[in-house]
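ok so dumb question maybe but i'm new to this and my supervisor (M.) told me to 'just get the structure for TPR repeat-containing thioredoxin TDX' and walked off. so i did the thing. is this what she meant?? sequence i used:
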Amino acid sequence: MDAEKVAELKNFVEQCKSNPSIIHNPSLVFFKTYLQSLGARIPPAVPKSMGYRSIEVTEENRDASQILKSKAMDSISEDKLHEAIDHLTEAVMLNPSSSILYATRASVYVKLSKPIAAIRDADAALQINPDSAKGYKIRGMARAMLGQWEAAAKDLHVASNLDYDEEIGMVLKKVEPNAHKIEEHRRKYERLHKEREQRKIEHERKQRRGEAKYEREMKMEQPSESKASDPEAASALKEGQVIGIHSAGELEKMLKAASKSSRLAVLYFTATWCGPCRFISPLFTTLAGKYQKVVFLKVDIDEATDAAARWNISSVPSFFFIKNEEEIDKVVGADKSSLERKIAQYAS
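this is what came out, is it supposed to look like this??
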């Protein structure tokens, strides 16, 4: 390969090393695509206004950037904020290794109500100098403008510890109450979540105990299952009364008892918070006294959640008519006439 071409290529590579953003030039898209096809990691494009920190800052550039900073401060004092941004951007381009230049421009962005740009500059200042009080202060103020109260409070407290001033105290008076509210809300949510988990564990424990009890009872009843009409099973049923059910295991036991006694079972799913349930519950109790050979079962879905889940309950009140452990009909809603009519129909 021609030595002159190799020298040009070497020079181009050196330029890429000192300023990787060159690769994002539209005219070099073919080269960028080639590098990516080889699995190369292409650094993101750096906005020109952020400067290129990899360049070598000469003493001349450093002095020129200080002059531009002084001009920017004069512009700020005259409330010419956009002019100040222009001066500071030129200064950053000349000396991108100066933390104070980024922090100062960030403070002007806050005055211009541009919090995102302010945070970008404050981040740059803190990358250069992690102990920049001004960087933390301005970033905290910008985050407060965005409603990021907790992050804002954290930045402002760090700034206060590094170099306290009255402005930090004034902003903290606004930020801290909001940050405390968010923290209290999060603690409340965590507490409620923990309580829900505890209730879930307790419910599962009760469910396991109920199922174990049910299995024991079923084993004890097995010798009498072959009888068409079982006096022992009938004795478990309370004639003329509504039987409260507290678990899926208890429900299965009562349905088997009703089946052994060749009786219709009416299964009523309810809830304490349900208005229509309160409306129809007295009728259900009255019907239990009227149809004494029918088994009336009542399930609170919030208490016997396992039974409600097993029967796929999506609304209350819901009534199921069961014979021989098989559902033969149902009524959904507080329909008094349908409920009584169907009980009379299937009880005969």
